[in-house]
Design brief:
The complex is a heterodimer of chains A (356) and B (230). By secondary structure, chain A is α+β, with helices and mostly antiparallel strands. Chain A contains eight helices and 20 strands. In chain A, strands 6-7-8-3-9-10 form a six-stranded mixed sheet, with helices on both faces. A five-stranded antiparallel sheet of chain A has the order 13-12-11-14-20, with no helix packed on it. Chain A has a five-stranded antiparallel sheet with strand order 15-19-16-17-18, with no helix packed on it. In chain A, strand 1 and strand 2 form a beta hairpin. In chain A, helix 2 packs parallel to helix 4. Chain B is 75% helix and 0% strand. In chain B, helix 2 crosses helix 7, helix 6 packs antiparallel against helix 7 and helix 7 packs antiparallel against helix 10. The N and C termini of chain B lie far apart (66 Å). Chain B contains ten helices and no strands. Chain B has 230 residues and is mainly α. Classes of the chains: A alpha+beta (356), B mainly alpha (230).
Chain lengths: 356, 230
């Protein structure tokens, strides 16, 4: 992957009447990366994608692709291709003709078209199905056709609008790995829109989280999870507990229900009240305070949920109205508690995330 | 009358006026079916795709010819045509038939366009086609069975229609008007019965074909869903 900027968005906004769908988005996509726009439905991520594709014009700001400004350039003249949420496979054409559709708009000989179609069909693993019609394909196969049809034109950016949402869970996980593999094989920049945080985390090089038309944070999946920029991002990406705390100015944090702890290294705290985020899996649970934990509090197990590989314990801790969630791997016998048990919940100082 | 004979079917071909009337009907049927399908397709596309004020009202208005008594429509059209200087003629009949065919064409095309996935057109444009290219290469082929179904139904309605044709046809009768004229002569009755049998069979076949294409359209344009598992 190089660091060349391929798609540059400067102050991009889109308003529909009085409703602002996308609000001054600044974002650069690098050549060859797999970037995901992640957010709840209605956050403007699809609108942003459609503006890059050329189906919508921004009401403010500019988009350029490969250094060329895109204002006024229609969708059919852009170096982008899209995989639609419904896949939009042409029902009157077979698989090969679907894939050849874009090539037939260009000046290209029949032989050339056939070669390119055969090539891309084998890349996506559909070499046997060229003669099939759309209504004879499974969901996963339709998706591969949609991918092949877009990729055969060698776009600079491949846009994917919720590409996996129509598939069932098992197939979706297979296709996540497949998408990632395909992106590495073709080396084209992929921009995917999704509302599924796990999908975005497992596939992407970088993720942009959007709320209410604004980009809240752009970071790698790991950074997004471990250093969320806002409370909302922290809540949207995985589970998290919020612990109110007060910095006393002497480098000590007073955490509600737990006690005092030195301010974690590198945390920007000016003093006063802060909110700390703590992921459920960072807790140590035991009948005694754990030796590894920097700080522990007494807790009463209120309930638990068994997920197979992990168990979530819902804990009552003094000073908190809501239960605190601690997740432990289903690995050690000692980790099993029943509702009503008295336990110690502890964590390390460096597991804390300071949230604005 | 006794016994079985196909004699009167043979007689049919010898009736010159009947052949003329048949041509008139075919002409009126084809033109009115084509125009009604074109107008109905445009209306259906607008109703299916866009939101605009008075949409329900417009839809209702397009369907009114279905519930208006044909005698009233025929009288009104006759008065109106005479007022604008259009004498009873095949042109007048054709216009009348376009009018009564619009609800059929609109309803059939609406079911085609409502199942049409709009992202198909966007996909075509995204893949480099122009708007016209998308219409020609994607939209029309996908709704083609609907168009065919609409043409067949409209043609059949026009071909069988009597009241409007009776009021508006003037000196050149369509087939139903000609038949009505012949019923008065007992000697012609066997020919009329033979003709009636043929018309019944033809209409029946046309409507079956229309229904076949309508269902095929519905199947083709049905939105993509993971119906089949891997």
């Amino acid at each position: 992957m190089t660091d060349d900027v391929l798609v540059h968005m400067a102050g991009v906004s889109k308003a529909f009447g009085s409703f602002t769908a996308v609000d001054t988005v600044e974002l650069d996509l690098k050549a060859g990366e797999f970037f995901s726009l992640l957010g709840p439905s209605g956050c403007g991520k699809s609108t942003l994608l459609r503006m890059i594709a050329g189906f919508e014009e921004p009401t403010a700001g500019s988009i350029s692709i490969d250094g060329k400004p895109m204002a006024g350039v229609p969708a059919n003249m852009r170096a982008t291709n899209m995989v639609f949420q419904s896949y939009a496979i042409f029902p009157h054409l077979n698989v090969a003709d679907n894939v050849a559709f874009g090539l037939r708009s260009q000046k290209m000989t029949r032989a050339e078209i056939d070669t390119r179609v055969a090539e891309i069909l084998s890349t996506v693993g559909l070499q046997e199905l060229g003669a099939r019609r759309a209504n004879e394909l499974s969901g996963g196969q339709r998706q591969r056709v949609a991918l092949a049809r877009a990729l055969v034109l060698k776009p600079k950016v491949l846009l994917l609008d919720e590409p996996l949402s129509a598939l069932d869970k098992k197939l979706r996980e297979q296709m996540q790995i497949e998408l990632r593999r395909l992106q590495r094989v073709v080396g084209i920049t992929f921009l995917m829109v999704t509302h599924d945080q796990y999908e975005a985390m497992t596939i992407s090089d970088r993720i942009g989280v959007m709320f209410d038309g604004k980009l809240a944070q752009v970071a790698s999946p790991r950074e997004l999870y471990q250093r969320p920029a806002t409370r909302r991002v922290a809540e949207f990406i995985g589970g998290i507990n919020f612990l109110p705390a007060r910095a006393n100015g002497a480098g000590q944090l007073e955490i509600r229900g737990f006690g005092t702890l030195p301010v974690p290294e590198g945390a920007r705290i000016n003093g006063g009240d802060v909110t700390l985020g703590l992921r459920p899996e960072r807790f140590y649970l035991g009948r005694e305070p754990a030796a590894e934990a920097d700080i522990s509090a007494r807790a009463r197990v209120e309930d638990f949920a068994f997920y197979g590989e992990t168990i979530h314990y819902y804990l009552r801790i003094e000073g908190y109205d809501d239960t605190i969630v601690a997740s432990v791997t289903n690995f050690q016998r000692a980790h099993h508690f029943e509702p009503g048990d008295e336990v110690f919940a502890g964590f390390r100082g460096r597991a804390l995330v300071v949230l604005p | 009358m006794s016994g079985f004979t196909t004699h009167w079917y043979g007689e049919l071909a010898k009736q010159e006026q009947l052949i003329d009337a048949l041509w008139n009907s075919l002409l009126v049927g084809l033109i009115s079916a084509f125009c009604a399908t074109l107008l109905g397709a445009l209306a259906a596309r607008a109703l299916a795709r866009y939101r605009f004020p008075m949409k329900r009202g417009v839809h209702g208005l397009l369907m009114t010819p279905l519930v208006m008594p044909e005698v009233i429509v025929a009288t009104s059209l006759l008065i109106m045509f005479l007022a604008i200087g259009l004498d009873p003629s095949l042109v007048a009949v054709t216009i009348g038939h376009i009018f009564i065919n619009i609800p059929f064409a609109t309803a059939i095309m609406l079911s085609s366009f409502e199942q049409f996935d709009d992202s198909l057109e966007e996909a075509a444009v995204d893949l480099g086609a122009t708007e016209w290219g998308a219409l020609r290469r994607v939209t029309l082929p996908v709704v083609a069975p609907g168009l065919l179904s609409s043409l067949l139904v409209s043609f059949t309605v026009s071909f069988d229609e009597f009241i409007l044709a009776f009021f508006l046809s003037g000196t050149k009768p369509t087939l139903p008007v000609y038949i009505w004229g012949q019923v008065r002569f007992p000697a012609k009755l066997p020919i009329v019965l033979a003709l009636g049998t043929l018309l019944l069979v033809a209409s029946f076949l046309l409507l079956i074909a229309a229904e076949y294409f309508r269902r095929r359209a519905a199947r083709l344009t049905a939105p993509a869903s993971g119906v089949y598992d891997d």
